[in-house]
Design a protein that fits this description.
This protein is mainly α and 410 residues long. It is 77% helix and 0% strand. It is globular and about 55 Å long.
């Protein structure tokens, strides 16, 4: 089977979990109106979703590297479909947290398995492959914004959760049948001069013993906070600024497209000029655009929509650049498990971008403080990318090697 067919299936699977994160903001106010829960209480559900989506990945990545992605993603389709559909019937916060966490666990399996497909089958085009796969996650929600908005208007949020949950779960299971790890490593093309590629494969313990991992983890964490804050809070922000409901609908439709385009664009650029150089430029732009949201974005609905979209365009590349860099620095053989540790930074970022950001707004009555802080963090990340480029490639330390297992071609 062609590697492009496998890549396409991975993209489809990622598109089907996009709703779980990027369409959530459409449901926040309807849930609050029906239950009278506080904004911060509802948004802790978003934080738990991200936590389960990210912190479950190290274990799932290790298993996917060795047993293959097909069975895991089939199971993930059930978790995502059931968990998302059940949120609409949650009558307590505990149930909301439980069902959203269940969907997060399924999303972890989908994200980990799909990302590994791109990194393992496309060593010659890692930035592009990772960009396409992560773009599926970044832009897939655009397919559902119209149907969700229609269901929210004609029925209620319970119906929207139910119907989209069933559709997403079925499509993930179908896409999983086309996924498999390579039986043996795919030969890599000679690296471009600007892209540094390590000749050795590190397992996760060896990777965790290097300073490079912690540098990238810190950058991924700092960059993750601002994007996740906007993802979770764009609905409440729009309402705070007294913009019409149509402004939010347009924004939530445009944002995933900008997110996906950014992942493909910056991933492709990184194949040409290097991961670290691309990070420096993209992260610096992100810092400036975050500031534009609280200045220009307040002046008109159009500027609000544009500035928020640009936030996503300059943030989404985090999830194409870091998996590519992780495979460059630590090899592709254990790509799923290695990147899963780096991706767990997103779970930490969600604590600040979800529940704590909502709490800060409730205390201060303004979103500005969160945007200022996130702009500073993006600037620091840009500077750290320069430092990372100047560091020599990582060296293996004497860390015990786990019991080896050959990856199945399931």
């Amino acid at each position: 089977m062609s590697r492009w067919i496998r890549l396409s299936a991975a993209v489809v699977a990622m598109m089907m979990i996009a709703n779980l994160q990027y369409a959530w903001t459409l449901f926040v106010d309807p849930i609050r109106a029906a239950t009278h829960w506080k904004l911060s209480d509802v948004q802790w559900g978003f934080t738990l979703f991200i936590a389960f989506e990210t912190w479950a990945m190290p274990c799932s990545g290790w298993l996917i590297d060795r047993l293959g992605p097909r069975v895991f993603l089939s199971f993930a389709g059930v978790l995502c479909g059931v968990g998302w559909a059940a949120i609409g019937h949650a009558s307590t916060l505990t149930e909301l947290y439980l069902f959203y966490s269940l969907a997060g666990l399924g999303a972890a399996l989908v994200y980990c398995g799909s990302t590994g497909i791109g990194l393992k089958w496309f060593p010659d085009k890692r930035g592009l492959a990772a960009g396409l796969i992560s773009a599926g996650f970044g832009s897939g929600a655009a397919l559902f914004v119209g149907p969700i908005a229609h269901l929210l208007h004609t029925q209620d949020y319970r119906a929207a959760f139910l119907y989209t949950g069933i559709a997403q779960g079925v499509m993930i299971v179908l896409a999983a049948q086309f996924l498999a790890n390579p039986v043996k490593a795919v030969a890599a093309a000679p690296p471009r001069a600007k892209v540094r590629v390590h000749a050795e494969d590190f397992h996760s313990l060896q990777m965790l013993a290097t300073p490079h991992f912690y540098m990238m983890f810190a950058m991924a964490l700092m960059m993750g906070i601002g994007g996740l804050m906007v993802t979770a809070q764009v609905g409440p922000m729009s309402k705070t600024l007294h913009y019409a409901a149509a402004v939010l609908t347009i924004s939530v439709l445009v944002n995933p497209l900008a997110n996906g385009a950014g992942r493909i664009f910056w991933g492709s650029v990184s194949d040409l000029i290097g991961r670290e150089h691309t990070m420096t430029v993209a992260f610096l732009l992100h810092a400036g655009i975050l500031l534009s949201v609280v200045t220009l974005g307040k002046q008109s609905p159009v500027l609000f929509i544009v500035s928020i979209a640009l936030v996503f365009f300059t943030w989404g590349e985090v999830y194409s650049l870091f998996p590519s860099a992780c495979a460059d620095y630590f090899g592709a053989r254990n790509a799923s498990s290695n990147y899963s540790f780096l991706y767990s930074a997103k779970g930490v970022a969600s604590i600040m971008g979800g529940g704590l950001a909502a709490k800060l707004f409730e205390k201060t009555g303004s979103w500005d403080y969160g945007f200022y802080a996130c702009a500073v963090l993006a600037l620091v990340s840009s500077l750290l990318a320069i430092v990372l480029r100047r560091m020599p490639m990582p060296r293996k330390l004497s860390v015990a090697t786990p019991t080896s297992a050959v990856a199945a071609s399931d």
